[in-house]
Structure formats: structure tokens, C-alpha cells
Design a protein that fits this description.
The protein contains twelve helices and four strands. The chain has helices at about 5-40, 45-80, 95-105, 140-145, 145-160, 165-195, 200-225, 230-245, 245-260, 270, 280-285, 295-305; strands at about 85, 110-115, 125, 135-140.
């Protein structure tokens, strides 16, 4: 893998964030117009346009409110989705010492620390700025890794924060959620509206919504690819550079690979935050698994061992 400097990585992720923020409203507006155009009984384009102009302000307002709520309360929402809670310093000074030492070595502000009461091994970073950056560790990963291995995992998550990966991931999660909601509402409104009222073209309208929904799902996948698999390799490399112990992170990943399942995590969008997929094995082999944002953990271990 070609080496990419930290500043280059930060610039790339900032550009991707801007691109997603700019492209999303345009795609959403196009989706709404397509649904109205094919579902409208009016043949006159001007009447369709008039309907669109009446509807789109409410769509934009609803989307804006959703984004604002998700943007400012994403940490609380992620905590609910993962079953995590705040980790007090008095509860585990070992973890605090490891995080503080790494932050001091790289001039980073101390992130908030959370814990998931699960005996499996996993971790993730989240947040959009220094006030909200956080690292979450499972009880299992704290108890089952030695200091060097746990330090490697923490360094990996701090690298995500340092590279601005976490901001890009949060934006992706918010946008995917909005797309899914809009597509679902469009499908339900036509299913229980057009068909229940016996409209002749109800089946055609449903087909159109299904196609639009499929396109939206494809866009959601592309949004996930905005956070490419390379981010995990970059975070691994960042951890190796930060700790000077690539073998420690490789050893930690080997242990994580054997038991990454976090029972509280049921959403795929949240699952992409973790150092390894925290969901049951069967979900990894679904169609969406083909578009995973995580590279094979065995490959990551192999690359880390080359640095040792």
C-alpha cells in the first residue's frame, strides 16, 4: 500500500466531507422530483413543477432538522445504539493513563472515554470536533488485552480522530439514515395510498418507488465508500507509528478476530465505526457485506507484521 502522509489524509477526508455535504441535497432534490413526476396524475409538466415547489420546502426543512439533531446529538444516539456509558477515571486508571500518554506524545486533546459492558473485544472512535471526540472500548477488550495490545488499539482509534475519519463516518451515517427514511416513507405512502384507493397505475407507481429506492440504496453504498477501506489501513499504520509497536496491534487484532461480536449493536451504519465488524457472522456474508468498509482483518495483521 502506498504511503500517504497525515496532512494529505486529513485534506482528503475534509474534501470528502465537503463533497458529501454538497452532493447530498442535490441527490435528495432529484429523488423527490422523480417520485413526484412519476406519481403525479397530471400530464402538464408545469403542474408537476408547481407541486414540486410546494413540497420541496417541507422536505428540505425536515432533512435540515434531522441533520441538525443528528449532528449535535450523534454521541448520545451512538451511545444508545451501542449500549455504552461514560468511563470514569476512578473506575479504570489504566485506560486513562494509556490514552493520556498517547495524546501527550502527539499533542492531541484527551477524548471522552466510554465503555460497553460486553465481554467481547471491540472498540471505536466517534465525534466531529475536539469537544465531542470519544473512544469507546468494550469491557472484554480492556480485560483481555495486555497493556501493549490495548495501547495499539487505542492508538488506532486516536489515528481515526487525528485523520478526521470519524467526522466523515458520522456524516455518512446521518446521510444514509435520511435516504433510508425518505425511501421508506415514499414506498409506504404509495403502497397504502395509490393501491388502497384502486388507482389503475398503482402498480407502476410502486415499481417506480422501488427503482428510486434501489438508486438511493446505491447512493448510500457510495456514501459508505466515501469512507474507503484504506482508512483502516491508515489507522493501523498511524497506530504503528504512534506506538512503535506494530506487533502489539497485530496481536490485538488477532484476539479481536476471534470474538468481535457486540450483542447491543444491530445497525450496520453504526457497525462501520468499530475496529472490526461487531455483528453476527451471517451479516458479514450478506450482499451488503460485499460493500464493507472494513478490509479483511487477516490482511491488516499481515501488513502490520511486515513493519515488525
Amino acid at each position: 500500500m502506498t504511503y500517504v502522509g497525515i496532512q494529505t489524509q486529513i485534506m482528503r477526508n475534509n474534501f470528502k466531507s465537503i463533497l458529501l455535504v454538497t452532493a447530498f441535497p442535490l441527490v435528495l432534490i432529484g429523488m423527490v422530483y422523480a417520485v413526484l413526476f412519476f406519481s403525479s396524475q397530471q400530464k402538464d409538466p408545469e403542474e408537476v413543477n408547481d407541486l414540486f415547489l410546494r413540497v420541496i420546502p417541507f422536505v428540505i426543512l425536515g432533512t435540515f432538522l434531522w441533520f441538525v439533531v443528528a449532528w449535535f446529538f450523534h454521541n448520545a444516539l451512538i451511545q444508545m445504539a451501542t449500549g455504552s456509558r461514560y468511563l470514569e477515571r476512578s473506575e479504570n486508571k489504566r485506560v486513562y493513563n494509556l490514552v493520556e500518554n498517547l495524546c501527550i506524545s502527539r499533542g492531541l486533546k484527551m477524548p471522552h472515554l466510554f465503555i460497553i459492558e460486553d465481554d467481547s473485544l471491540n472498540a471505536f472512535a466517534s465525534g466531529i470536533n475536539e469537544k465531542t471526540y470519544s473512544v469507546t472500548l468494550s469491557r472484554g477488550i480492556i480485560n483481555k488485552l495486555n497493556d501493549e495490545e490495548l495501547e495499539g488499539v487505542i492508538a488506532h482509534e486516536l489515528s481515526h480522530i487525528r485523520n478526521r475519519d470519524v467526522r466523515l463516518m458520522i456524516i455518512s451515517i446521518i446521510f444514509v439514515g435520511i435516504f433510508a427514511f425518505v425511501a421508506e416513507m415514499a414506498f409506504r405512502s404509495l403502497r397504502f395510498g395509490a393501491l388502497s384507493r384502486g388507482k389503475k397505475n398503482g402498480g407502476l407507481l410502486l415499481l417506480v418507488v422501488v427503482v428510486v429506492s434501489a438508486i438511493c440504496y446505491l447512493i448510500a453504498i457510495l456514501l459508505r465508500f466515501g469512507i474507503s477501506r484504506s482508512r483502516e489501513y491508515m489507522a493501523d499504520a498511524g497506530a504503528a507509528e504512534m506506538t512503535r509497536k506494530p506487533y502489539a496491534l497485530a496481536s490485538a487484532l488477532r484476539k479481536i478476530q476471534n470474538d468481535p461480536l457486540i450483542e447491543a449493536v444491530t445497525r450496520r451504519d453504526v457497525a462501520q465505526l468499530f475496529i472490526e465488524n461487531p455483528q453476527p457472522e451471517e451479516s458479514k456474508f450478506s450482499i451488503s457485506g460485499l460493500f464493507s468498509t472494513h478490509p479483511p482483518i487477516a490482511k491488516r495483521i499481515e501488513l502490520l507484521e511486515q513493519f515488525a
